[in-house]
Design a protein that fits this description.
313 residues, alpha/beta, five-stranded parallel beta sheet, binds phosphoric acid mono(formamide)ester
Length: 313
């Protein structure tokens, strides 16, 4: 198939064929990552800038590892120690960085649309590593890859996304990507944390978590993003946990084998019981492992690589 994208801004509009192409490419990179020397010269000579305006552990480190495993030169930009503090604009920042001869930019920004804005400022490929409440496409892809590893075919798989949907870019990328793959998606949370536009996504909506658990094959559990909430959207963390927190007792009440995903960071004891996050139900660390291979695939394909290539050491 043809993969002609220059940027990865979101999974909205992606086809099943495109997502499968990325997953198959990522599978080849998983083999590379299992070698004694987990590195290929595929992006030798390319320079990737990691431009993070918001905090990150998993995404920043796995992009950097992916770039190093592909032999790219990597540069890390940290907004809090940059000339942004002196008032430099995003446009000036990125145009000055591109003037140093770079090829790709990985960007995380608090403003939805910032990665798209960068595509209007420079010629390099832009990869969205999370923009405000919009999308987090590589997280969506690694979540889908983790389910694809386990279930092979996602057609008809029932995935309930539970928690703070309103503020979640992970939820949006999961909805677009999972629906493209043929999965059924439901959203579950208090009415104040489900956006009004949810109806247009054609998902099921649950306000009772036990009903969502009974329906689902997979629970993708989200963190409550207090840093993005400017008014109280539920009475207290304790009440949220009592009504929507996922516990072993709740799962065993339905006596159902479900798969648990969580994009991290986890607020243990809030959206999920601490023990359950590390239990036999959980694929949370598999998601993190898959993140490196998925990001290698995205970097490789956006730089013009094709899945048919052999990855020699
Ligand atoms: N899932 C995720 O985006 O985690 P980080 O914020 O640590 O990158």
């Amino acid at each position: 198939m043809e993969f002609n994208r220059k940027h990865l801004l979101g999974l909205e509009g992606f086809t099943k064929e495109e997502i499968l192409y990325i997953l198959e490419t990522a599978d080849s990179f998983k083999e590379v990552l299992s070698r004694p020397i987990p590195k290929v010269p595929t992006l030798r000579g390319k320079t990737v800038v990691n431009l993070f305006f918001e905090a990150s552990t998993r995404t920043r480190i796995s992009f950097e590892l992916a770039e190093k495993r592909l032999s790219a030169d990597t540069v890390n930009f940290n907004a809090s120690s940059s000339s942004v503090l002196k008032g430099e604009t995003l446009r000036d920042t990125i145009r000055n960085i591109e003037a140093m001869n770079i090829d790709m930019v990985v960007v995380r920004h608090g403003a939805a649309g910032a990665p798209y804005f960068l595509t209007q400022c420079i010629d390099s490929s832009i990869i969205n590593a999370g923009d405000g409440q919009h999308e987090h496409p590589t997280q969506g892809l690694l979540d889908i890859m983790t389910l694809w590893d386990k279930f092979k075919n996602l057609e008809g798989l029932k995935v309930a996304i539970i928690g703070d949907i309103t503020h979640s870019r992970v939820a949006r990328s999961n909805i677009y990507g999972l629906q493209a793959m043929g999965a059924e998606v439901a959203l579950c949370g208090p009415a104040t944390l489900i956006p009004l536009k949810a109806e247009q996504w054609e998902t099921k909506i649950f306000h009772n978590v036990d009903d969502a658990i009974a329906w689902a094959d997979v629970l993708n559990i989200l963190r409550i993003q207090l840093e993005r909430q400017h008014v109280g959207l539920f009475p207290s963390i304790r009440e949220y946990h009592n009504l929507f927190g996922i516990t072993r007792k709740r799962l065993e009440k339905v006596k159902k084998d479900v798969t648990i995903l969580h994009p991290g960071p986890i607020n243990r004891g809030v959206e999920i019981e601490s023990e359950l996050a590390d239990s036999e139900y959980s694929l949370i660390l598999n998601q993190v492992t898959n993140g490196v291979a998925v990001r290698m695939a995205v970097l490789f394909l956006l730089s013009g690589g094709r899945a048919t290539e052999n990855f020699e050491e």
